[in-house]
Model the fold of this input.
Amino acid sequence: MVPYDFDYELLVELTETHGPPGYEGNVRDIVRRELDDEVDRLESDAMGNVVGTVEGESDHEVVVAAHMDEIGFMVRRVDEKGFLAIDALGGWDPEVLRAQRVVVQTEQGKLPGVIGSVPPHTGGSEDDEERDVHDVRVDVGLPTDEVEERVDVGDLVTMDQRTQPLGDCISGKSIDNRVSVFALLELARRIEDPTATIHFVATVQEEVGLRGAQTIGVDLDPDLALALDTTVANDLSDFDEYDHVTDLGAGTAIKLKDSSVITNRKVHRRLREVAEQEGIEHQFEVLPTGGTDTGGLQRAHGSVPVGAVSIPTRYLHTPTEVAHADDISGTIELTAAFLEHEDGSHDYTL
Done:
């Protein structure tokens, strides 16, 4: 296995844990466990956001946030043949769902299932081009009456995929955004006696509309907010260079915009300045489509200056997402250096 300068086993635990939007409890348990000894105060709210606070020497307050949820599904009915019809929780391309293993989270425990695919021997399905998630069925290999006894409408379905090294990279399900939750936990370990009070926030329901981040301002009134998330790396042979957004292994990404936010220019310039001072590889992210908690944090308590640090990731919103180990380390290093120098003396007003 490739040697890492971070806790690889914790990253594997986070990415292999199941937690779709609104049902992040298993991930939340890990976050609370890891933050408990690292923060001065640990709380959660009615939506399930977790806030671990490290008290600083000044009145300056900073929120650093990463969302816990992964894209998944909810069972909407059991059909007459015992197959499960599902509804999407988050953005899925139905084409990537063919021939995938899944896990159904039932009251009686986990139930393995598969999303099948019509074999090529029969010529495939005539309506393949019109498929959407509502057309997908989960097969749990049981008679209809037994399925009806074990599975309820509203049960959750998530992908069943191991996390493993892939060259210099790491591949698995829910790299988006457990890799950033992992970075958040690493930051809480590394930062000691900060000048600013830092709130390490693990949010919920980002994949269905940035909902958790939008509620943070009810309890917190930060002077600055940073989001940690993944971003698109289309650095593949069939994409033009200008459509890459970011490149794997080229460094952590400083967000300039996505479809939910235009980051505060003073914040992203400060991130760039810190990266250059510390010799941290970095690149800039202009994401044409797709929103992040950055947008929710910007409006969570009136107007808040926001920035974001992103981890380039190939194959986002698939069961085989891929991130580069150096980019993960760089994201942690840049954010840590930024926070260690954040003392309230930088003016982010425009």
Q: What stands out?
A: The first helix runs from residue 8 to 16. The mean pLDDT is 94.
